């Protein structure tokens, strides 16, 4: 079983690496015992003018072996870190692609965010294993030599985890805030990139600069605060360990003066006792240095463990092509007071177009995203029943359609188009097969997105969800999009969110949403 601190941190394969770390640390502790024994005995021999070469050699060999063990631990930790990061990154990227790139948090974590895990794997985990093995073995050796010193160690060692816990408790909130600031910055950037054409169009792009500067500043100051606490905590732990060693040294000194303790035993204990506290101090320092890593891990788990929205809704896969029925659908965003959608009932006949309209913020996009299964349980709480939507036979056009391929034709083929040319003709993009999607105007990009929807319908999609397909497009593109939407009638059941009167006029049925509080 994995300890709670490691749960979710290590793929199964890496657990065996962790056991090997334990063995290497036990070996390191054995070399430390041999080194201390050799050095103490050699010192005594030198004081008495005897030949100390045997014990000096023992100490030297032990020191070299200890160095090798430390090196092996570092290499192994590096390998565990790489493997675990790779696995987590692959999961996040897969999730991100499943979401159609709609979850910026997954993208940030998979790139910059997961690098914060380096400190966690290469410092914290080895330090943790070392703290679990080394003090125990050294403590047993001290106990066998001098029980008084062992007792002092036993009484003072808990001070270090205690300090650690106190400091950790103090800064946990701050670390979470720093990570939240990074996410806010990334959300803001993603929103900005999506809305840039519109912002430039209405001449409001410059205002964003100040908001970005403010967010960047907030992230910087919160990160500095985390770093400062990590340095201070190292200092506090160092102090606790040094005072504890001093107490042991005083007891040894007094007993040496009164002849109650042999010099060799005193030296052995003094050499070992400092190393007894070292692993615990290292855990403390590494623990705070890997705060960002643990937070990144927590957030990665949140993204990965989040259920898809429709998974939360109860669904009935009634007769395919039998239209869409929604009953009692409610959507609550955690950050929003009141439901974005409340107890919605809707029935759309197969092969018809249902227009969803209403003032800005009434929940049109939310409704489509919920039906498309795009709202994760982290983003929103859903309840109600939906029937007639088979995720494999669904085509959803979000407000920010992206593209992944390098040519228009490849983009359509990716979505199942057998004859991209015919589809491009249908949306007025004839002859653009070889063009890079990024070179299209915003209106043309929307038309390409509509062509993708047509491709999906050709290859069997029965339900189409279109979120503001004519938003921010020129009049010519809007006409082509209207044509494409019309061509969907009787081939698929279409739900269409829009403010565009001409587009709304094409619908067979209207759902007017109202603003909720
Ligand atoms: N991720 C979110 N977190 C919190 N609240 C949200 C989130 N997404 C949307 N909302 C809120 O839910 C409500 C419905 O938003 P939605 O985008 O669905 O409206 P809409 O009708 O599509 O608006 P528009 O016509 O401007 O696109 C709004 O009050 C919005 O602020």
Automatic annotation (TrEMBL):
Keywords: ATP-binding, Membrane, Nucleotide-binding, Transmembrane, Transmembrane helix. Residues 324-515 form the ABC transporter domain. Residues 20-289 form the ABC transmembrane type-1 domain. It comes from the Bacteria. The chain crosses the membrane at residues 20-44, 56-77, 124-143, 149-169, 230-252. One of its GO terms (cellular component) is plasma membrane. InterPro entries: AAA+_ATPase, ABC1_TM_dom, ABC1_TM_sf, ABC_transporter-like_ATP-bd, ABC_transporter-like_CS, P-loop_NTPase, Type_1_exporter. It is a multi-pass membrane protein. It is found in: Cell membrane. GO terms for molecular function: ABC-type transporter activity; ATP binding; ATP hydrolysis activity. CDD domains: ABC_6TM_AarD_CydD (cd18584). Its main location: membrane. Signal peptide: none annotated. This is ATP-binding cassette subfamily C protein CydCD.
């Amino acid at each position: 079983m994995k300890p709670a601190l490691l749960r979710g941190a290590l793929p199964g394969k890496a657990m065996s690496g962790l056991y090997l770390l334990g063995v290497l640390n036990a070996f390191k502790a054995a070399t430390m015992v041999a080194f201390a024994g050799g050095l103490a005995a050699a010192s005594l021999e030198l004081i008495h003018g005897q030949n100390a070469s045997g014990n000096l050699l023992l100490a030297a060999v032990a020191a070299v072996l200890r160095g090798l063990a430390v090196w092996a631990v570092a290499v192994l930790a590096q390998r565990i870190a790489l493997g675990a990061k790779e696995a987590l990154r692959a999961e996040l990227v897969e999730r991100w692609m499943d979401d159609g790139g709609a979850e910026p948090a997954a993208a940030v974590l998979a790139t910059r965010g997961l690098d914060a895990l380096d400190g966690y794997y290469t410092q914290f985990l080895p330090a943790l294993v070392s703290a679990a093995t080394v003090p125990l073995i050294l403590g047993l050796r001290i106990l066998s030599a001098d029980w008084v010193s062992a007792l002092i160690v036993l009484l003072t060692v808990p001070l270090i985890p205690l300090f650690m816990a106190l400091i950790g408790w103090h800064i946990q909130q701050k670390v979470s805030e720093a990570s939240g600031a990074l996410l806010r910055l990334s959300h803001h950037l993603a929103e900005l990139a999506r809305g840039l054409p519109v912002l430039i169009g209405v001449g409001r792009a410059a205002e964003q600069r100040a908001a970005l500067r403010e967010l960047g500043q907030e992230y910087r100051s919160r990160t500095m605060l985390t770093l400062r606490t990590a340095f201070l905590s190292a200092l506090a732990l160092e102090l606790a360990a040094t005072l504890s060693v001093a107490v042991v040294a005083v007891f040894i000194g007094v007993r040496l003066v009164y002849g109650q303790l042999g010099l060799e035993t005193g030296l052995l204990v003094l050499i070992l006792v400092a190393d007894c506290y070292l692993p615990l101090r290292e855990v403390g320092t590494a623990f705070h240095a890997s705060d960002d890593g643990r937070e990144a891990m927590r957030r990665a788990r949140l993204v990965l463990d989040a259920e898809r929205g429709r998974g939360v809704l109860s669904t009935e896969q009634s007769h395919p092509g039998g239209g869409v029925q929604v009953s009692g659908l409610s959507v609550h965003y955690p950050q929003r007071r009141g439901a974005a959608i409340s107890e919605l009932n809707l029935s759309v006949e197969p092969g018809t177009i249902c227009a969803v309209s209403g003032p800005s913020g009434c929940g049109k996009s939310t409704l489509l995203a919920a039906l498309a299964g795009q709202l994760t349980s982290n983003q929103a709480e859903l309840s109600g029943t939906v029937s007639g939507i088979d995720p494999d036979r669904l085509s959803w056009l979000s407000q920010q359609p992206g593209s992944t391929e390098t040519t228009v034709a490849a983009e359509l083929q990716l979505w199942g188009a057998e004859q991209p040319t015919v589809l491009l003709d249908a949306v007025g993009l004839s002859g653009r097969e070889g063009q890079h999607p990024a070179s299209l105007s915003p209106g043309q990009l929307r038309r390409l997105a509509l062509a993708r929807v047509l491709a999906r319908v050709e290859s069997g999609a029965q339900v189409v969800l279109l979120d503001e397909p004519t938003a921010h497009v020129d009049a010519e593109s809007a006409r082509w999009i209207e044509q494409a939407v019309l061509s969907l009638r009787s081939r698929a059941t279409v739900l269409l969110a829009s403010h565009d009167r001409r587009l709304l006029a094409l619908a067979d049925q209207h759902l007017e949403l109202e603003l909720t509080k």
